[in-house]
Write a structure and sequence with these properties.
With 547 residues, the protein is of the alpha+beta class. The protein has two domains: 317 residues, no CATH class; 167 residues, Alpha-Beta Plaits (2-Layer Sandwich). The chain is built from 20 helices and ten strands. The strands form three sheets. It has a four-stranded antiparallel beta sheet with strand order 3-6-4-5, with no helix packed on it.
Length: 547
């Protein structure tokens, strides 16, 4: 058989078997893509191998795609690290990371365990594959092949214990919580509603004589950015609230306003009629439009490309950006993926939709040029030496840290005309899954004879003890800091701990225990970027200190 065809056959078979194993429920959870590592045990028994240069290429390719996609996905949520409670959550997560790394270091120095076995167990116990990749990248010398194989062995055995450890910790925290989780969910929703209130709809009857004869744009200037007028009813007929339309006494104005401005607007204009003109039939329609046209990205909403005649016949009532509903601000510039709610006559709304693009299909189309350029920058960033006083050789972010950091940073940059760094969600998902599958497949096949030692008590007993200790002790310390010192609600603290372990199954478990809650997912996403980056860096530092 053609050697390339044989390699592809082995790789495909390993992936298929591993994903099938990953779907099997064991104690209420699934291994997922980590099942590929167990499939590697089967393939090693039948001596099904791929040559080393090919394995190294597959491993590095999968790693780069995986970590860059993670960074690109987490980039938009990265600013949450610096928000009000972000530092408390990230200090807690860093305590979990540092204490776990310290335990692994002591396990080698004091207990005399092989460094490869200890560090692989650490990566598995904290369910963090990129840290395993960072250590693998450090062990490239042929003389370190045995230690690299022990890394995989420790990771494979410790991974299930790491999942059980975080799930058990969450269960204990929930049972010991003074406030039940449904109550915490309600309290969090109330606090979020107060911080990001939805716009209020008002239908005010004009009774202020000082406003009679004034155009609507003059009224808008009196409370700029606090409200927008979308429709106007006059003598029983519905009209679009175009900026130049003069006001008359008795007009009913349909407003979308900030809740805190409702009282002052009632005092300025007149009483609320309690009606909803949006439900009244007439020549005016309402529609949501998504910004996808490259030519308008970064341009002002009042751009000259939009004819003044059309601009006067369209009213933008709301802007939805990053899931937050806003009154369209002065000097609004279009961002890719913005959703705007507009009011106007059918033909004008259709023309405006064409101007903004409104292509849902475009949101899912792969953006390959930004992907390629981002990978180039990430790989280059990973090769920059960073001298540290306590290390003999300079630290490099490598193929694990460089693309991850590049993905986090590049998504913070604003769009440049038709160019945006943010990958569409479907593209990101494909890259993440394909990358981690390629990486784990190469790692499983490269472990080789190390799988034969999996049944030796001298191997698996230390792994079990260390996995339990490096999972439970740091999580206990993190829980005490978060709940006792920082006074976090236990549900939010559990989300932080799940994020500190970079463990999506733990987040899914939280969502099962508290359905519909947003406290845990937001806490998870707030600590995930810093945790992921610190896991990779600490893994490299430990590898350089111990090997």
């Amino acid at each position: 058989m053609n050697p390339s065809a044989l390699d592809l056959l082995i790789l495909s078979g390993l992936i298929a078997l591993g994903l099938w194993i990953g779907k099997i429920k064991i104690g209420g959870f699934r291994l997922g893509v980590a099942g590929i590592l167990l499939a590697g045990v089967v393939f090693s028994r039948f001596d099904l191998q791929i040559d080393s240069p090919t394995l190294h290429f597959l491993r590095d390719l999968g790693l780069v795609l995986f970590v860059y996609a993670i960074g690109n996905q987490l980039g938009p949520s990265f600013p949450a690290v610096f928000q009000k409670d972000g530092w408390r959550m990230n200090v807690t997560a860093l305590l979990v990371v540092i204490s776990g790394s310290a335990l692994a270091f002591l396990w080698v120095k004091l207990a005399g365990q092989p460094a490869g076995l200890a560090l692989g167990t650490l990566s598995g116990a904290v369910t963090n594959t990129p840290s395993l990749a960072a250590m693998q990248e450090t062990l490239r010398s042929p003389s370190q092949a045995d230690q690299a194989a022990l890394l995989v062995l420790g990771y494979s055995l410790a991974y299930p214990l790491g999942i059980l450890g975080i799930l058990g910790t969450i269960h204990v925290i929930r049972k010991g919580s003074k406030t039940d989780w449904p109550t915490q969910v309600k309290q969090f929703e109330d606090s979020m509603a107060a911080a990001h209130p939805k716009l209020t709809s008002l239908a005010l009857r004009l009774q202020n004589p000082l406003l009679e004869g004034q155009p609507i744009h003059a009224l808008l200037r009196m409370a700029h950015g606090q409200f927008i007028v979308s429709r106007l009813e006059r003598d029983g007929e519905l009209h679009l609230a175009s900026p130049d339309l003069p006001l008359r006494a008795g007009d009913i104005l349909q407003l979308a306003a900030r809740p805190e401005a409702a009282e002052s607007l009632t005092a300025l204009i007149g009483p609320d009629t309690g009606r909803d003109l949006k439900t009244k039939e007439g020549p005016v329609i309402y529609r949501e439009i998504v910004v996808t046209r490259r030519a308008v990205i970064g341009k002002k909403a009042d751009s000259a490309h939009l004819t003044s005649a059309l601009a006067s016949r369209i009213v933008i009532t709301r802007l939805i950006r990053a899931g937050i509903e806003l009154v369209p601000p002065p000097g609004l510039r279009w961002h890719y993926g913005d959703v705007v709610r507009v009011v106007g006559q059918p033909g004008d709304v259709e023309a405006f939709a064409g101007y903004l693009g409104n292509s849902r299909h475009d949101l899912t189309r792969p953006k390959l040029f930004p992907l390629g350029l981002g990978l180039v920058l990430g790989i280059a960033l990973g090769q920059i030496p960073l001298p540290l006083p306590f290390l003999e050789a300079p630290l490099k972010l490598g193929l694990a840290g460089g693309p991850l950091l590049a993905g986090l940073i590049l998504t913070q940059l604003p769009p440049i005309r038709t160019f945006t760094w943010q990958l569409p969600q479907p593209t990101n998902e494909v890259l993440r899954h394909a990358g981690i599958i390629l990486f784990l497949s190469a790692v499983a096949l490269s472990a080789g004879e190390a799988w034969d030692r999996i049944g030796e008590p001298a191997v698996w007993i230390p792994i079990v003890w260390m996995a339990l200790l490096t999972t439970l002790l740091p999580l206990t310390a993190g829980a005490i800091l978060a709940i006792r010192v920082f006074k976090m609600p236990s549900l939010q603290a559990s989300g932080v701990l799940a994020g500190s372990m970079t463990d999506p199954p733990a987040l899914g478990f939280l969502n099962q225990l508290a359905p519909g809650n947003m406290a845990a997912p937001l806490a998870f996403s707030s600590v995930y970027p810093v945790t992921m980056l610190s896991r990779v860096l600490f893994a490299q530092v430990l590898a350089m200190l111990l090997f």
